[in-house]
Amino acid sequence: MQDTHTNTHVTTHVNSDGESKMDNQGFVVWFTGLSGAGKSTLARLLEAEVRRQDRRVEVLDGDLVRMHLSQGLGYSKADRDTNVRRIGFVCRLLSRNGVIAIAAAISPYRAVRDGLRAECGGRFIEVYVKCPLETLQARDVKGLYRRALAGEIPNFTGISDPYEEPLHPDVVVQTDRERPQESVRPILEALQRLGYMKASTDLCSPKKGVNGEAA
Fold first, then answer.
1. pLDDT band at 20 (very low <50, low <70, confident <90, very high)
2. Which residues, at least 6 apart from 59, have a Cβ–Cβ distance to it below 8 Å?
3. Is the pLDDT of residue 141 over 60?
4. In this predicted structure, what is the pLDDT of residue 5?
5. Are 173 and 186 in contact (CB under 8 A)?
6. CB–CB of 36/213 below 8 Å?
7. What residues contact residue 157 under an 8 Å CB cut-off, 6+ apart?
């Protein structure tokens, strides 16, 4: 049976000691999806697992990047693309210095995400955090969808701005059907198959629910 979660095709190279050559090298895990789908929640769960394996890791959360690295940018297509490219640039710097860079950003435009993958030289794992718009509107932790539908927030992804789904993501998780620890498991399994991480220990039990995002 085909695994509906993953679409990975990278070969793992193993040395004479049976250890992956990628074990201590950096890479980028890029979470993309609509606001409130659970990108930040899954990024933090993955970060915790990486730290348990004594690996260096940093999370670039879209909300925090907007506050610091991209302060002053708006939500036009040009500004969104600039924001995503800035996150990607930092991720590349981290990964080439042996750090696992985890990004959680809406990143709505496919061409920019695909460009980041190419710039990372293949060391880029795209995770599509999929959740129906109807579920996100009902969940609406921060009230953003209500405000967007009322016309109070312009250029809101999924309402008045487009979101271009990935055509070939490495992993797809469906947070309307899965609890966070269920969603993060196929991500870990994909990283293990690719040789980026060792076999995982049991995941700790996260809090119920999925956090909303406004990045």
1. very low
2. 43, 44, 47, 102, 103, 104
3. yes
4. 61
5. yes
6. yes
7. 34, 35, 106, 108, 163
The tens digit of pLDDT for each residue in 148-205 reads 999 999 999 999 999 999 999 999 999 999 999 999 999 999 999 999 998 765 554 4
> How many CB atoms are located within 10 Å of the residue 40 CB?
24
State the amino acid at position 103 in one-letter form: A
Q: Is 107 a catalytic residue?
A: yes
Architecture of domain 27-131+163-193: 3-Layer(aba) Sandwich (3.40)
Whether residue 21 is predicted with pLDDT greater than 70 in this model: the reply is no
Write down the residue that tokens 């959740």 correspond to: 131
> Which one is catalytic: 70, 107, 200, 205?
107
The tens digit of pLDDT for each residue in 36-68 reads 999 999 999 999 999 999 999 999 999 899 888
Take residue 12 and report the two structure tokens written for it: 């793992």
Q: At CA 96, angle to CA 91 and CA 100, rounded to 5?
A: 55
Domains in the chain: boundaries = 27-131+163-193
